[in-house]
Amino acid sequence: MSEKIIIVDENDNEIGSKNRNFVMKDDIYRVSALWITNSNGDILLAQRALTKSHDPGKWGPAVAGTVDEGESYEENIIKEAEEEIGLKNIKSCIGPKKRMRGDHNYFDQWYFLKIDKSEEEFVLQKSEVESIKWFTKEELKHELETNPDKFLKSIKDLFDEFCP
Predict the structure, then answer these.
(1) Is residue 41 packed enough to be buried (19+ CB in 10 Å), middle (13-18) or exposed (0-12)?
(2) For residue 84, how many other CB atoms are within 10 A of its CB?
(3) In the chain, where does DSSP find H-type helix?
């Protein structure tokens, strides 16, 4: 049986929790995500595992996760960073919180981290992450324009906001 996730109202106030397998389309939940850059301004993205039920193989934030019952957004991103790409005890900066509606219905709290590591230094959780890649801003902009279907829908909006 999978863990329970926090369910919130339209103002991101907790109203309960549900087993993640029983979340309905109208339920609003919480997600934390990490936008990682390096000192060159490159952006680290993660390709979702090919076995994921939602958007398998698409490129998205370096780290993201649904907030479990009893967790804060920050506790979740620290846990997910270690589990998904092997970063321990990160000290990230809080970013914007976005309300996402569509196939999935959630609040997305963003965090920012600058780190200089090669792709080989990360330890990937293969059940979550197929691969990671440092993209230059120019490369990512070109990829988003020419191959938008390779990316989660939110990445273009985030790129436009975070990389003006």
Answers:
(1) exposed
(2) 23
(3) 73-85, 137-146, 153-162
CA atoms within 13 A on the CB side of 153: 7
CA distance 72 to 137: 31
Each as own residue / partner, the long-range contacts of residues 87-91 (CB below 8 Å, 24 or more positions apart, any chain) are 87/63, 87/113, 87/115, 87/122, 90/34
Nearest C-alpha neighbor of 138 from the set 42, 60, 39: 42
pLDDT tens, residue by residue, 103-123: 889 999 999 999 999 999 999
Question: What mean pLDDT, rounded, does the chain reach?
Answer: 93
What CA–CA distance (Å, rounded) separates 82 from 85?
Answer: 6
Reported pTM:
0.92
Question: Identity (one letter) of the amino acid at 144?
Answer: L
3-state secondary structure of 75: helix
Spatial separation of the C-alpha atoms in residues 111 and 105, rounded to whole Å:
19
| Gap between the Cα atoms of 152 and 86, Å rounded | 22
24's enclosing H/E stretch is none
